């Protein structure tokens, strides 16, 4: 199963955004689930394990 989230930290400050990402990563690992996060924030994307970039789509 893949869990998807669109801009989960879009309206959060950096501190809380980092906290949310850490929680998501912990849950993903504990449940052995893939987490797909959609974001327009390159600095947030750089904190993930893998980046897939969509262009002209």
Short description:
Helices cover 39% and strands 18% of the residues. The protein has 57 residues and is an alpha+beta fold. It has one domain.
Description:
The chain is of the alpha+beta class and 57 residues long. The longest helix is centred in the middle third of the chain and has 18 residues, at 14-31. β1, α1 and β2 form a beta-alpha-beta unit. The protein is 39% helix and 18% strand. The chain has helices at 14-31, 42-45; strands spanning 2-6, 34-38. The chain has one domain (2-45).
Summarize the SSE layout with pairings:
Layout: E1 2-6, H1 14-31, E2 34-38, H2 42-45
Parallel strand pairs: 1-2
Give descriptors for this structure.
alpha+beta, globular, 18% strand, 2 strands, 57 residues
Helical amount among residues, as a percent range?
Answer: 25-40%
Order of helices and strands: EHEH
- Main pleated sheet: 2 strands, parallel
Strand content: 15-25%
**Total of domains:** 1
Strand segment tally? 2
Strand order of the largest sheet: 1-2
Instruction: Return the average pLDDT rounded to an integer.
Output: 88
How many DSSP H or I helices? 2
Low-confidence stretches: none
Form type: globular
Helix-strand category: alpha+beta
Question: First CA to last CA: what distance?
Answer: 24 Å
Radius of gyration: 11 Å
């Amino acid at each position: 199963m893949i869990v998807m989230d669109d801009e989960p930290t879009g309206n959060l400050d950096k501190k809380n955004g980092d906290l949310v990402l850490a929680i998501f990563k912990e849950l993903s690992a504990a449940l052995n689930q893939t987490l797909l996060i959609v974001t327009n924030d390159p600095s947030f994307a750089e904190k993930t394990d893998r980046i897939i970039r969509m262009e002209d789509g």
